[in-house]
Design goal:
Layout (H helix, E strand, L loop, with lengths): L3 E5 L2 E5 L27 H13 L12 H17 L8 H11 L12 H11 L27 H5 L4 E6 L5 H11 L2 E8 L31 E12 L3 E5 L11 E5 H7 E9 L57 H5 L2 E4 L15 H19 L6 E7 L6 H17 L3 E7 L3 H10 L9 H13 L2 H14 L9 H16 L4 E8 L2 H8 L8 E7 L5 H14 L7 E6 L1 H6 L10 H9 L23 H4 L7 H12 L16 H4 L2 E4 L3 E3 L4 E3 L9 H12 L17
Helix pairs in contact: 2-3, 3-4, 9-14, 11-13, 12-18, 16-20
Protein name: C1 family peptidase
Pfam families: Peptidase_C1 (PF00112)
InterPro entries: AB_hydrolase_fold, Papain-like_cys_pep_sf, Peptidase_C1A_C
């Protein structure tokens, strides 16, 4: 994000605020019909209060930092609170600015500056804490500390200063701006700053006269050429212009205040917002639900004190019919805590910042992958190996739904002795496919002919391109880029954690569902120095070419023992009764194999027919399940996966495997699975909602036998 510098009193001030992008969802400020006074505030109010306001330290100084979005809004918040209570503590401009970058329009965090809307969104989501709890230090030479972490209790304190409402003001209407100031007392704005803002020529005595009237404030001389964008507070108006409260200290203007003429405002303004203070909440801790069970079968909750408060998301889980009796369930984590166990990546494999209390995505990842697991290990240290599970989610659901599901899944991993780290994307392929198919096809026309039309249409109208992009992004996520991408950071901190705990005292367990296999497969070459104990793939959405390149080498080398490599798949009958978007009448894997992969009818690792010799040895002409060009890949995989004896005839119904074969190839045969609360129609998307599949995975992670009972049995996975 480009920025410019403004040199004032020997220091360079970064001007980096950017105009808010157009958003038709913005609510517009409509002034009340009432008379406006000639000045605002009234002369009596100014005489009685403004000097006390200045003496209370409410004129802020951002130093050389490009943090005006935080300081400008903090000035507004301070002013509104101080007018109600002169004992008000300064709010934290660090928190406001940090959250502005968290919620603004630009991706990533490797930039300075932000937007007014981003700052308001942050205040709206989280409130704002005191400056004491989240400091912003500016040294005597005007340099600012680049980052300071919040202190304990900041999140509860922030809930005592919520935002009420915020409305965009028609910045070009002087009357609307004046009305907003008269109604609220202060307005949050941004504008282009010019050399007229250099007010050092405004001479003040060493001991300034008490600030008692608006006539004491200097005019900012108008200039034609702007230098850069700046956010600040307006706290009044006169016949000449608006009263600016700047954030360059009390040496600017008259004790930090000046008049911006109406003409200058209209020539240079970019954004204006009216706000109100909200009703404080009770400040209940987000950690309340985590102490009701005991992970690792001893001591307090593993999460207590380890998972920081983070950005909240709100969304419900998928809706299903056929409710059944609910089993006893562990309470879910808060969504904030779920983010504390999750690495979220964007479409390029780069990490996304989701933890409010950390400087950026890189430091968040270090906490999630290294510091928090290490603290858990230290807290629950025992002679047993520390079990850490990497769970790559399907990539089908949106981020809100995925994190809600993680909140339900995580307690069962923690309670049964495994520390989970979840891997996911910030967008879901499922929604895109729903929109693509529903725009052209009807749910009423299901047939083989329509399926063939869908396969052709989706391949040429964005579906294949989106699937190809997802696979490419999984590959990109291992790059040591600048900043490093998600899986590279994960592998690096896992190795650091193993070095700290001891290579022989830490076990890695891999779990992936659907497209999550793309992440785990690309990660494997970077885990060669670690001890991988088990690998469980749920309907892996990857071709056998990919499996031969990524999974086969680790099986051949022994990095993953063959008897600890588990596949959970649907029977072919269930694949053919599944659906995509209620329109395509087969499973997602069928659509990928026949439409989205490089060749038509590409065998997928997550399909039982890819593992059944009837479909690639001797009966090719009869069933035509796979492209003949894929037969070498099928044979290569199965010769290693099965060894000398290739099983046949089991794919259709999931029956016919020997006990040994069925011990690692788990074929879903029943039409319904259970989430612990309700019955779900078995399909590609239900594996990680199935209590039996999750229980079997947790049993093997715990080193228990399949017929044993978990210390904390899996309950409701669909909360």
């Amino acid at each position: 994000m480009p920025n410019n510098n403004f040199v004032w009193t020997g220091s360079e001030i970064t001007l980096d605020v950017r105009p808010d992008r157009l958003d038709i969802r913005d609510r517009q400020f409509t002034p009340a019909v009432r008379h406006l006074h000639p000045t605002c505030p009234s002369p009596d109010w100014v005489a009685a209060h403004w000097q006390a306001y200045v003496d209370a330290g409410m004129i802020l100084n951002q130093g050389s930092a490009g943090a005006c979005t935080g300081f400008g809004l903090s000035a507004v918040i301070n002013y509104l609170h101080w007018c109600e209570n002169p004992d008000h503590q300064q709010v934290s401009p660090r928190m406001v600015y940090h959250l502005a970058k968290f919620y603004d329009e630009w991706q990533g965090d490797d930039y300075v500056g932000s937007s007014c809307r981003g700052a308001l969104k942050g205040w709206n989501k989280h409130g704002v804490c005191s400056r004491d709890l989240w400091p912003f230090t500016v040294h005597a030479n005007n340099t600012a500390v680049s980052w300071e972490a919040p202190k304990t209790g900041w999140e509860q304190d922030a809930q005592t200063r919520p935002l009420g409402v915020y409305y965009r003001i028609n910045k070009d209407s002087i009357s609307d701006m004046q009305a907003a100031l008269a109604e609220t007392g202060a307005v949050y704005v941004s504008a282009s700053v010019h050399t007229g803002w250099y007010l050092s020529s405004y001479r003040q005595p060493k001991k300034p006269q008490p600030l008692t009237n608006l006539d004491q404030l200097p005019l900012i001389p108008a200039q034609a050429q702007g230098i850069g964008g700046h956010a600040f507070a307006l706290i009044g108006y006169t016949s000449q212009g608006f009263v600016v409260q700047n954030s360059w200290g009390t040496g600017w203007g008259c004790q930090g205040l000046a008049i911006l003429t109406y003409e200058d405002w209209q020539n240079n303004c970019t954004d204006a917002w009216a706000v109100s203070l909200g009703v404080p909440s009770s400040g209940v801790s987000a950690y309340a639900s985590t102490d009701s069970y005991t992970p690792f079968q001893s001591g307090p909750s593993m999460l207590a004190g380890l998972v920081p408060p983070m950005a909240s998301r709100r969304s419900g889980p998928p809706q299903h019919k056929k409710p059944v009796h609910a089993a006893h369930s562990l309470p879910p984590l808060s969504l904030d805590q779920a983010y504390g166990l999750s690495l979220v990546m964007d479409n390029n494999g780069a990490l996304i910042q989701r933890l409010v209390a950390f400087k950026n995505a890189a430091t968040s990842a270090e906490h999630i992958v290294y510091h928090a697991p290490l603290a858990a290990y230290t807290q629950h240290k025992s002679k047993r190996a520390f079990k850490l599970t990497l769970f790559a989610l399907s990539g089908l659901a949106d981020e809100d739904t995925t994190l809600a599901h993680i909140a339900s899944l995580a307690p069962y991993f923690l309670a049964n002795g495994s520390y989970p780290i979840f891997l996911t994307w910030n967008s879901g392929l499922g929604d895109s496919l729903d929109q693509l198919l529903s725009s052209e096809f009807s749910t009423a026309g299901k047939s083989t002919a329509q399926d063939m039309s869908i396969e052709s249409y989706a391949a040429t109208n964005g579906g294949k391109a989106e699937w190809t992009l997802l696979k490419q992004n999984a590959e990109l996520s291992v790059l040591n880029d600048s900043p490093p991408r998600g899986l590279h950071v994960l592998a690096r901190y896992l190795q650091k954690l193993a070095n700290e705990i001891g290579q022989d005292h830490m076990e890695i367990h891999l779990v992936a569902h659907s497209a999550g296999a793309q992440l785990i497969g690309n990660l494997l070459p970077y885990l060669k120095k670690l001890k991988i104990k088990t690998c469980s793939l749920f309907a892996p959405a990857c071709s056998l070419d990919f499996a031969n390149a990524k999974f086969l080498p680790v099986l051949e080398s022994g990095l993953i023992a063959r008897n600890q490599f588990h596949l959970h798949v649907l029977s072919d009958e269930l694949e053919k009764t599944d659906n995509v978007a209620q329109i395509y009448s087969k499973s997602l894997l069928y659509l990928l194999a026949r439409s989205f992969e490089a060749r038509h009818k590409t065998p997928m690792l997550g399909m039982a027919t890819s593992l059944d010799a009837d479909f690639f040895s001797g009966k090719i002409k009869d069933n035509a399940q796979w492209n003949p060009a894929a037969i070498p890949a099928l044979r290569k995989w199965n010769d290693t996966y099965w060894g000398k004896q290739l099983p046949r005839g089991f794919a259709a119904k999931g029956q016919g495997l020997t006990p040994k074969q069925a011990s690692t190839l788990h074929i879903q045969q029943q039409r319904y699975v259970h989430s612990g609360h309700e019955a779900l129609r078995a399909g590609h998307t239900t594996f990680d909602y199935d209590e039996k599949t999750i229980s079997a995975t947790l049993l093997r992670i715990a080193g228990m036998k399949p017929d044993q009972t978990l210390p904390y049995p899996v309950g409701n996975l669909n909360l």
